[in-house]
């Protein structure tokens, strides 16, 4: 996302750390061999991996506050800024849709199915699609609402979503519940998206579905409030950090308390999850800000800053590359065919490590490989803005 100059180095670092972690967990050598912290929780609960996406959306909120504050102060520019935000959001959505349909097209080619079937079963929502939708909505709210109204909107979103999910009987089920296939969000996804266009791993619900986009907006608004606070000129750095730590710890505690009745759950993006993840993100940025921007310890930041300044670019390329390389089919010794990238992993990694370590080393190699590209772009001051 576009930001005003000078950039907040700690924010670039935190964003880069988050995106690098996202690429690490999204690209294991084998999905059947993953260390527990690098997997999502089965349903309720929260692993380190479950924090990555909300951290990124929260950071998007902080970035909005930094990028659009000058426009917010000038109502005459609101319409122009909103149009730009819509264009950026739609671009993000289309990039996500492209990855989804590209994968389907490859599947159609390799399985001899038709392109029509690819479009009939393509997933309509996803990570980039959610980022785009949340960015548009949150940008408009930021431009049109006061800080106090944004805070109230966040509270209303969390309360309304909690009420919808825990008190509204699910049609066809007859009672409210939070189970995978029978909760209200899953019912809405099946009814509007249809099972043909939901997450391929479930077919009956989508972790980036329609209703759960509402609390995802709440995560972004949380970040906006933090960004507004961080931009204040009338507050010294020590006070900023102290209050950010306090707000973060408070949100974590509230999230854990709410978890007793409305479980922390990434797939449902529950209200307790918004508070818990947002609180941890606040603590993380406060720590980074104090060490990097206030104390001036910057030498160690480069590897993640290079990820942070081209975050969307590297996320898109990391999703595209395996789809492209696996278009190339190679023949194995037993006569069967497999994708080039898959075969490379089988030859260069699995013979030398245990299955779970081979999977991890592959993911680390993936992150390091993209670091080389991003470092080159960073040194050449190439920043691709979406």
From TrEMBL:
Superkingdom, natural source: Bacteria
One Gene Ontology MF term: acyltransferase activity
Species assigned in the record: Pedobacter soli
Protein name: Predicted acyltransferase
Sequence intervals crossing the membrane: 12-31, 51-69, 90-110, 122-143, 150-170, 209-229, 241-261, 273-292, 304-325, 359-378
Keyword Glycoprotein (UniProt): no
Record's keyword terms, sorted: Acyltransferase, Membrane, Transferase, Transmembrane, Transmembrane helix
